[in-house]
């Protein structure tokens, strides 16, 4: 009943707002606004940035996110569910926010291992983002359905890269506070995965894609 009410409410909002969120100018404005919190830490800490692997991979990811968001394809359908917008903001900017409250922690793995996971996570994320191309977005929205590249093997490769990064970063500095913050961050993206699929599977083409590609994050595992 809750899901039915949510769908009804979303349809009512859609009919009242028309194609507001699918207007190219509106889509572009939201893309620019969405990038501001991601770029802000780079600007604020630009004088303190080093050239270690963790920093370089982070900066590379920021560059790819911003560049693809600026030139992204306009959506043909965007969720109007306010809870999904809230979830998106929480998940997307969680790791930006906790950067101000996390602790150095105690390393549980060698620098070789944590740097290796940082590189692996970046490779997976970039593979996912480049496969997605101009179809990138944060809020659940339908652009072009992508089935090439990383999306041939998993439905959410960008989140796969993020999860690998979480593991590596946590191993580099474990503490009870860090463990809680990172676990919550992973939880938001797991929830967001199911929310996005619930929105996109209304398109028969995406529903068929879900049947072909069984794995969400890790092929053969989950």
Tally of structural domains: 1
Shape: globular
The overall strand count is 2
Structural class: mainly alpha
Residues in helix, %: 55-70%
- Can you tell me the CATH architecture? Up-down Bundle
Q: What is the beta-strand fraction?
A: under 5%
Element-by-element helix/strand order: HHHEHHEHHH
Summarize the main sheet.
2 strands, antiparallel
Question: What do the pLDDT scores average to?
Answer: 87
Describe this structure in words.
It is a single chain. The protein is mainly alpha-helical. The chain has one domain (19-212): Up-down Bundle (Four Helix Bundle (Hemerythrin (Met), subunit A)), CATH 1.20.120. It is built from eight helices and two strands. The chain has helices spanning 2-17, 24-44, 53-70, 82-97, 111-132, 157-172, 176-200, 204-212, and strands at residues 77-78, 141-142. A two-stranded antiparallel sheet has the order 1-2. Helix 5 packs antiparallel against helix 6 (157-172). The two termini are 28 Å apart.
